[in-house]
Each structure stands twice: as structure tokens, then as C-alpha cells.
Specification:
Elements lengths: L8 H8 L5 E2 L6 H11 L7 H4 L7 H18 L1 E2 L1 H14 L12 H12 L6 E5 L2 E5 L2 E2 L13 H12 L2 E2 L8 E2 L45
Parallel strand pairs: 1-2, 5-7
Antiparallel strand pairs: 3-4, 3-6
């Protein structure tokens, strides 16, 4: 199958900037449009989803995702709403939910259906909390109101979310999909969030050797 590389640097600006660019929204598709744009427009980390024959892989869905959404996005910078609706119709047929074509969903629900049930991918994240391991495809940041954070960055939100939930990464993930704090029309926890172009996960890794902040030797105890 034909493939187009992700957009980088000047090419990304040239192809994606301007009117009628990105993924066209229609009928509560914003959650899916934003997720697909983030996963594929400027990175190839998840390109295996477009080509690999996973154990449960549905070739129809894979073909729509590759040929009608990702390739046009990378080639022209625009995906029409009908292409996304075609994918939504397939998700409705393959999944257990009849409202994928008209209702707004949580991005995590969409990713779990696509990656786990339709493509049969292995989980991307291995997390541990309270001695129990849990596998997932993405991580949603959950936080109580943080009075000292007015305009936070992703690094700060991720660290505080892991700390409050007593979570650790069992291993370095091959791909770390992070969903920002949710908000509705009436309330936003943060008016803006600054993207962190790099993430330091040293303190989030389970059993990762780290330096003692007092003596400089390898630390043996961790204080939250």
C-alpha cells in the first residue's frame, strides 16, 4: 500500500497552515478528529497501525484509516468529513456501540476500540499502582484543582497526576499517548496548557536508579 511520511519542520508549516486545513469536523467528530491529527500528522510512531497485519486486524478499517485519512492529511493537509464518517460507520459495525456516528465519545473509548478490538495491538503502556500492574493504550490526566498552576505545561500535569494516583511506569513506553484534563462548556480547569516538546519520565519509572538529592549517591528511598 502507498504511504506518505509524516510532515516535519518547514513542510509541516507549508502543508498544514491556512484555511481548510486539518480534519473537517462534522456531527460531534471533534474528539476523533483531534486524536487522529495528533497521532498521525507529524509523527510515524504509530504507523504500524496502518500497515502491520496484527492478530485481529480488520483490513477494511486499516485501509480506511491509511488511505482516506492519514495519507490525505500528510499529502494535502486536509481530510474531508466524509472520510472520518466512513471510519465511524465501520467502528459502529465492528464495535458494541451504535452511537459512534453521531455522538461525542471519550478519546480513550475510541482508541481502545480501534487499537484493541479492531486491530489487536499490544497495549502501549504498562502502569503499576499499589503493587498491581495495569495495561492501557493511553493515559488520561486526572487532577484536582491546582491553585498554583495557572498556565501549566504537560510535564507538570503528568508528574502531579502520577503522584496523586500513586502510579509508576513499569517500563519505558514505545509510545506515550497522554490525554489532557477534560472540561465541559461551562468549566475549564486550565484556560491554556503549554505543550512540553520533550518529557522527562525519570521520576515516573518504577525501580529506576536515581540520584540522592542530598549526597549524590544512588538513592535508596523516595519521598513523594
Amino acid at each position: 500500500p502507498e504511504g506518505f511520511p509524516p510532515l516535519r519542520n518547514e513542510a509541516a508549516v507549508r502543508v498544514l497552515r491556512g484555511r481548510m486545513k486539518g480534519i473537517q469536523g462534522h456531527c460531534n467528530s471533534c474528539y476523533m478528529d483531534a486524536a487522529l491529527f495528533s497521532l498521525f500528522s507529524c509523527t510515524s510512531v504509530l504507523d504500524s497501525m496502518l500497515f502491520m497485519p496484527f492478530p485481529l486486524c480488520d483490513r477494511d478499517v486499516q485501509g480506511i484509516l491509511r488511505d482516506e485519512i492519514v495519507n490525505p492529511l500528510r499529502r494535502t493537509g486536509f481530510v474531508r468529513a466524509g472520510s472520518v464518517m466512513h471510519l465511524r460507520e465501520q467502528l459502529t459495525d465492528k464495535g458494541q456501540c451504535s452511537s459512534f456516528t453521531n455522538a461525542e465519545k471519550d478519546p480513550e473509548e475510541f482508541l481502545n476500540l480501534l487499537m484493541q478490538q479492531i486491530l489487536g495491538m499490544e497495549p502501549l503502556l504498562k502502569l503499576q499502582s499499589g503493587g498491581r500492574q495495569q495495561d492501557s493504550y493511553c493515559y488520561q490526566i486526572f487532577l484536582d484543582k491546582q491553585e498554583d498552576l495557572v498556565v501549566p505545561n504537560v510535564q507538570q500535569l503528568l508528574e502531579r497526576s502520577f503522584l496523586s494516583s500513586e502510579l509508576k511506569l513499569v517500563e519505558i513506553p514505545s509510545c506515550f499517548i497522554i490525554q489532557m484534563p477534560r472540561f465541559g462548556k461551562e468549566y475549564k480547569m486550565f484556560s491554556k496548557i503549554i505543550p512540553s516538546l520533550e518529557l522527562d519520565i525519570t521520576d515516573l519509572l518504577l525501580d529506576s536508579p536515581r540520584e540522592c538529592c542530598l549526597c549524590g549517591d544512588v538513592a535508596t528511598l523516595e519521598c513523594s
